[in-house]
Specification:
Distance between the termini: 14 Å
Radius of gyration: 17 Å
Number of helices: 4
Structural class: alpha+beta
Number of domains: 1
Mean pLDDT: 94
CATH topology: 2,3-Dihydroxybiphenyl 1,2-Dioxygenase, domain 1
Number of strands: 18
Helix content: 10-25%
CATH superfamily: 2,3-Dihydroxybiphenyl 1,2-Dioxygenase, domain 1
Shape: globular
Strand order of the largest sheet: 3-4-5-2-6-9-8-7
CATH architecture: Roll
Largest sheet: 8 strands, mixed
Order of helices and strands: EEHEEEEHEEEEEHEEEEHEEE
């Protein structure tokens, strides 16, 4: 278990949220799957809803800003100065999609895309630090950037956030464990040749579950879809799934 009451270290994946067309439908799906307690947002917050486990926040659910916006889980990387980080993104060859702005008194954020095409958020904490609980069932356990240019991705994130890496191999493909202050905090991987060409580079979100097989069955029962059936990996039993609005994520049961 990881609990947190202060801002996460620079560059750490610190928060995830879901952008959907139908927030109420998403809340019904994820409370059914993970048992989340949801505090629904008001009009001032754009009806952004905070999801929790045992009184600690784990994720957010919000409405898409436009019909063209993809239905996705977004990973946010922690920053002590989001404006400075946004400048680094541009200098390193990325693009700032949404310039830094204040989110009431919760914090300050920006949206960006790396040179491989993977979108991510940058979060500077104020009253909202990001996830208060991780590495427990029904909470975030892993984030990884997947692209067709591992060298380009690792160079970009090292320049912007100062990551160092440990080389790995996942399913026979090159993989880099990203490290923040010497501690592993996520990964960067390679989309293999069997990946559909329409699949863009992206940050992938993993949620911990007590039983991957049972959770995958529940996904289907709730109207979602199992993309990759449960399978054992060196890191635990996992399954790639999507919710009933087609947002993809991964279920993983620790080894």
């Amino acid at each position: 278990m990881v609990t947190r009451s202060a801002a996460w270290p620079e560059g750490t994946p610190c928060w995830v949220d879901l952008a959907v067309a139908d927030v109420d439908k998403a809340i019904e799906f994820y409370t059914g799957l993970f048992g989340w307690d949801v505090e629904k947002g008001d009009q001032e917050s754009g009806f952004y809803s905070m999801c929790g486990v045992g009184g600690k926040t784990v994720a957010g659910i919000g409405a898409k800003q436009s019909p063209e916006q993809p239905t996705v889980w977004t990973t946010f990387l922690a920053a002590s100065d989001v404006d400075k980080t946004a400048g680094k993104v541009t200098e390193a060859g990325g693009q700032v999609l949404m310039e830094p702005f204040d989110v009431m008194d919760s914090g300050r954020m920006a949206m960006a895309v790396d040179p491989t095409g993977a979108a991510f958020g940058v979060w500077q904490a104020n009253k909202h630090i990001g996830a208060e609980l991780a590495n427990e069932p029904s909470s975030l356990v892993w984030n990884e950037q997947m692209s067709r240019d591992l060298d380009g991705a690792t160079a970009f994130y090292a320049e912007v956030f100062g990551y160092t890496y440990d080389a790995e191999s996942a399913a026979g493909s090159p993989y880099a464990m990203l490290k923040v202050d010497g501690a592993v905090a996520g990964g960067l991987g390679t989309l293999g040749p069997d990946t559909p060409t329409a699949m863009p580079a992206h940050w992938r979100v993993y949620f911990s579950v007590a039983n991957t097989d049972a959770a995958a069955e529940k996904v289907t029962a709730l109207g979602g879809r199992v993309i990759s059936p449960p399978a054992d990996t060196p890191y635990g039993r996992q399954s790639v799934v999507s919710d009933d609005q087609d947002a993809m994520f991964v279920l993983i049961q620790g080894s």
